[in-house]
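TEACHING EXERCISE
Course module: macromolecular assemblies
Task: Read the component lines below, then compare them to the predicted structure of the full complex.
Student: A.B.
Group: 4
Components provided:
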Amino acid sequence: MSSQAAIESKKACAHCGLPVPKRRMLQDPAFCCHGCETVYQVLQNEGLNETYYRLREASSSRSLRLPARTKLNEPLLDELDSDVFAESHSVPLDGGVHRTHLYLDGVHCAACVWLIERMPQEISGVRSAYLNLPRARLTLEWDPSKAKLSSIARWLARFGYGVESRVDGEEAPETREERRLLIKMGISWALAGNIMLIAFALYSGLDSETPGLFKAARWTSFALAIPSLLVGGSVFFSRAFQSVRSAYHVRSFKQLHMDTPISLGILVGFIASAWATFTGTGDVWFDSISVLIAALLSARWLQLRARRLAGNSTEQLLALIPSIARREDELGGITKVRTEDLQVDDVVVVRPGELIPADGSILSGSALINAAILTGESKPERKEIGDKVFAGTTSESEVLRIRVHAIGVHSHVGKLLSWVSEDRSERPVILSWVNQVGGWFTAASLTLALLTAGIWWVIDAQSIVPHVISLLVITCPCALGMATPLALAVGMGRAARNGIFIKSEAVLEWLTKVNVVVLDKTGTVTEGQMAVEQTELIDASRSVNDIMLKAASLESQSIHPISQAFLQWADGQQVDEPVDVSYEPGHGISGQVAGQFIRVGSPDWIGIDEDCFESERHFAAYKAALAAGQTVVVVEIDGRAAAWVSLSDPLRKNAASLVSNMQQKGLKVILCSGDHQSTTSKTGKALGLSEADCLGRFTPHMKKDLIAKLIGEGNVVAMIGDGVNDSAALQTAHVGIAVTDGTSASRQAADAFTTRSGLEAIAELFQESGKVMRVIFRNLYFSLGYNAFGATLAIMGLVTPIVAAIAMPVSSLWVVISSITQRTFVPKS
Amino acid sequence: MNILYFLVPLALLLAGVGVWAFIWSVKNGQFEDVETPGIRMLFDDEDEEQSTSGRNAP
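Instructor-supplied answer key:
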């Protein structure tokens, strides 16, 4: 009964439709979070709400995702406005207008398209905005002198669309390749259609009535089959030739792939038919081989297209290292220079909140450095004069002067990134039996051809040649050639609609074999940012809400991660603008809020002891929180300690169930983090992992080595991570999966990534990849069965061109239907 | 049946035109994104509604 009541009392967010938390339940309309509420109000104020929500209703085909983080990535915005961006990532058009492509977060439905494409009406200086929804790629034409790209990004952020820090060029090689294949496919189908039309006439007895037409029909088919072979068939011939050559080099028929038997069938069929046309005797198979070419090209094209949903190889990353640095000359003057123009031993100035442009050591100033991007450590660390700092990390509290030691590709982050873009030769070679089928198949068809020749040599030596030809044509693996690519293309397409992007087909196969899973901690199994875990009153005469809101108002002036936790708790509410704010680095923040003097900071700084607490019990709770290794801060109002607050980086929802699920399936789960051993162990314990499987203080390189070691021991390893620090490990593993909010570097290194919030998508990927593999096997078994059946008929001498013309497309059609109707990656309503 | 000597080349000619049109449309990028334009159709309706507001009122 109570559970039913709970379901009934659930309210859906007026903006995104997700459940509304308890404390927001009383609002009308109610929202799940502050982000949604803001977007709702912006839409309302601009008068866009009515159409937006109507369009959203109209197109509920795509699964809803959580609204994107509306937090702006300030370094990225600077990057977008820089000359470097304009030069290298935008194309100047006529009239001072530039064109560029941006990738957006959080676009999912018709309403998003409508809203984003209204940009030219809303922002002057934007000429056109065109969104490619499946790829979340915005093509923008704008006048940089009238509208700054950063203000466009800010406009988008108001509605909850974040600009991703990856860009790609004007035309990727994948696009060209895809278009080329599509054209070949179109031509092949047109030719196949016409050849088939003529073949129908031949099958319905054209020859007996009019010998002239019969001859003309055969010659026309021959003329049409030549371009079909040259345009479409060449795709298979060249690949078959390569595989034959490499098989010859290593003297192993296993090197032959599927294109070899396909090419063999096509060529034998064509040569025999051409001979028949010239001599006027025997059968022609032009229709079967031309349909075969067209059908196989279609499967290839679909596969290529599905793969491209997950991104291009030419994408580049922005904003990991800023493109502009502030250089200080001998006289103390500061000039802005391009980061690439920096020299070793230059002095650069970095302001709070900015990315450090180069590796170096601190000359003056001391600041909290957030190195999460490099190390995965969630807590910023204090760095003093003389300490080393790295490019890509953020100074969070103070202005720093840094002497440059290494820049660009020589810097720490530069090395990591070049590793990502390097050739993937270090990865394990994928040689599954799906790929080996080609070699066995070729061997089998040649053996069967010899067998047929042998049998018919005994029965009727005259008909050896036609029977061998019919065998090679009917066993040409059309269905088999389509079985894998089609099932994978459909599976990957379905996954992409669910926010899971798979880059290579091998992922699905490896996932069914994985026996060790390495998890990153910060940002992967945890949310990746501090959140208020517990609030306890010290001064019982006050209310938690009042204290927290005042503290949050004060903290709104700071960008420290602890401040962010307070702001998140306050969820957009604020009491008053704080005045007289001052920071005590490493200790806390103080200032006037609504006439009261507030201090928020470490217990030692505020100075509390047992006497401050109401009772021993309260003090014990406080002691326990400290002992548990939690970060505790105290809020003081007008000189009296009011409350203490404990903060932690909370586990993601479903993290524990994901881990226990994996363990039940017999997978070994290892938690590996750049964070302190104690923090890592604590998280691991909450996930149900043993102490030995929680590895703390792991640098990116150690992670990579760990995975290489595991692979060396014969394991199939999956790595799940999010940050740049995980990129090398993601790339080394058999399967690298980057999770939500993953930085673009990890996405590039990974084989699959999710754009859906939470870890559910990972569980789904593990589970559904098995289902896709089952569809592939179903297709393969059917195709092999069909070929065995066809071969039997051919040996018996029952295969004529009309039998082939019916049996081959029917078997392919079965594979198409079986692939399309797969129930994998089913969106949850 | 002799009409076939004329009809088959004609059919091939038409097929040729079709193929040419197809190649043009691929090169023009018409197949780059087959999903969004279908959605965009909904917006035109809406613009019309706005400009002739009142006419479609219930």
